Amino acid sequence: MNAPAKPSTEQDLNAFLISVERRAFKRTVFAVRDEDAALDIVQDAMIRLVQSYADRPPNEWPMLFQRILSNATLDWFRRQKVRKAVFTNIGELESSAEDEDGDFDLLSVLRSDEAGTEGADDGASRTEMLQLIEKEIEKLPARQREAFLLRYWEELDVAETAAAMGCSEGSVKTHCSRAVQALAKALQSKGVTL
Known about the structure:
By secondary structure, the chain is mainly α. The protein contains eight helices and no strands.
């Protein structure tokens, strides 16, 4: 017989939230391009997780949190649309479809923490490369962008990504494959090989 899932404790929940806060904040900053708004969104997502799912087994929290964070970000975009706020690149994303499920603008600064020490030329080149990649990610259709970010930035597996996006695993694979192909083609046309 399978042992029942370990009941969660307040310490477990605090440890989980601490473990995801930095990446969630970075991801959200890139989505909304406003640090204050990103902080509010992440805090709102954390509060929602605590209020609604604290009693769930700890192994369910990562997927639940990703879904809550995605929804909280979408809610923010909807509120901005209603308020007619003008944000860089958001107008194009919001007008592309009524039922968008992931307006995330960019893959985070591709392991910027792992960059280590680099010279000024390397740093400038890296910055240019990241800006180019960001622009190409922004051009992806919303679902492809969301699947790409969840799989390769959040490092979720296919099943977790499908659960977070509310779609089938096959759809995740299709979205990711198309995103990677589109990015590779766009970057190669600009002389970048990955």
